[in-house]
Amino acid sequence: MADGNGRTGLKEAVTGLGDHVRNSQVWTSIFRPGSPMRADGSDSPRNRAYVVMNNVLYHLHPVKVKRHGVKVSYVLCLGGLSFFLFIVLTITGIFLMFYYRPTSPQAYFDIQALATDVAFGQLVRNMHRWGAHLMVLTVFLHMARVFYHGAYKPPREFNWVVGIILLLLTLLLSFTGYLLPWDQLALWAVTVGTNMGGYVPVFGAQVSFALVGGVQITADTLLRWYTLHVLFLPFIITIFMAVHFWRVRKDGGISGPL
Amino acid sequence: MAEIPENIRKRAEEARAKAQGTAVPGAASAAPSPSPAATAVMDGPSRDLDAEAQRFGVPRRLLERGMYARARKDGVPAPALAGAAAPSAATATPSAPAAAPVAAAAGPPPGVRTQRLLTVVKAGAIQGTTKEPTDKVNVWPHLLAIEFVALLAMLAFLTLLSAFVDAPLLEFANFNEQPNPSKAPWYFLGLQELLAYFDPMVAGVIVPGFGLAALAFIPYIDRNPSTRPTDRKLAISIFTVFFMAAAILTIFGSFFRGPGFNFVFPWRDGIFFDDLLAILE
Fold first, then answer.
1. b/e per residue A115-152 (b: at least 16 CB within 10 A)
2. Which of A29, A31, B40, B211 has the fewest other C-beta atoms within 10 Å?
3. Is the pTM of this model over 0.80?
4. Is B173–A150 a contact, with Cβ atoms under 8 angstroms apart?
5. Shared domain check, A199 and A242
6. Model ipTM value
7. Total tally of structural domains belonging to chain A
8. Does B119 touch chain A (CB under 8 A)?
9. What range does the domain containing B25 cover?
10. Residue among A31, A60, A70, A89 with most chain B CBs within 10 A, to mutate
11. Is residue B143 exposed (0-12), middle (13-18) or buried (19+ Cβ within 10 Å)?
């Protein structure tokens, strides 16, 4: 009605449609109160709290955090990025599982086929591999950050221990994935790594046997490590991550300031 | 006897005196200084409440009530009041002239309730606040926006890296042909480097085992409660030494070890680190 001729202009029509959709029952049932997606989702202190409380992902966070905690220079986002890389690795990993058989020799040819036969196959495999290296790196750096801030001190002692378990699980996840391409690099890197398990005193031979599923690495090892890599270890690490994040909240949120 | 703060007592006396249109009692009774002879005997047959009130810093009215209450509880006659004038128990005005002298032995007149002062609670919160208010900001938008940017930056970096650099894939796994050198994944190369110096028992079991245990027990070993770097010089030094040692060993094992796990210079002899090689080529 901008030009005053009594007719509805295109802009008004679009806005009206948008308002109509955002006020519909379907829309308001999806987006809980406070969401910026809602027609009534204005910016107010109350709605800022609702954004966090009424979202399944965001409510990992408290409604408010200490001001120094949002400084990038304090946490460097390392813990969050580790978690984000874990999610990226889960998504790309599920993609790869569609094209991968953990048997010899199919495993190797399936990896080769990713580059030639699968749309974005090589890209996703690359993301999975580089993402895994990056995650090991960010987890290590996150640990160093937490140490230098003294963030393991009471009441956060146990969460540090959970963090060390998460570090170990991250290394194991990366290491079990290392074998799966079933090429020379994978086979011999894992051989070198698992040989160390044999030196464990008293039951070293048993550890080695359980790890590789035999006296030496075979195609059976591939299936074993595949199961560990895609199901067992992600299952365990998810539980520990849940405890880790929960304890961050319970132990009083972000540590500091220094 | 509970001690009543001076200011409260003064204020109460002034208020009472004002309500009854009399002079402030302290002004009148403070003039004659209490002589040692006036020491009251609490359980004696006769009591000088004015002297006691001055001596113990308790309003006379309360002393009087307490006296009657005790007498009634014990079933004995209340002690006689000393002094020139025994004021009425009902009005209990310390300095008021005797309006209606009561029989000292009869206790308080009927209908007068006596009360005892149990305690005086000073003004202030009953529950102490243990937490200092802290400066806080809303997670939305202040934290979530930063996290979102960090997430996008990481995703962009990872996607670009993956678009340009392919993950290594060597020949099909061959049990009969060990590549030279054979290296573990990079995060284990520090241990593999140690293996070049020490017995496998030390490098493969003791160092990683005790290393992980020590790492996990840091919060229980380091009992220093301070988080300020200046208070934690020892802890920071020790951690940094071990962290740097691990980093140096890892870098050494990754870059400076070639065929036969012998020492090489990466700039002269090439890089024997397949994942990095993929990135550099």
1. eeebeebbbbbbbbbbbbbbbbbbbbebbebbbbbbbb
2. A29
3. no
4. no
5. yes
6. 0.90
7. 2
8. no
9. 6-106
10. A70
11. buried
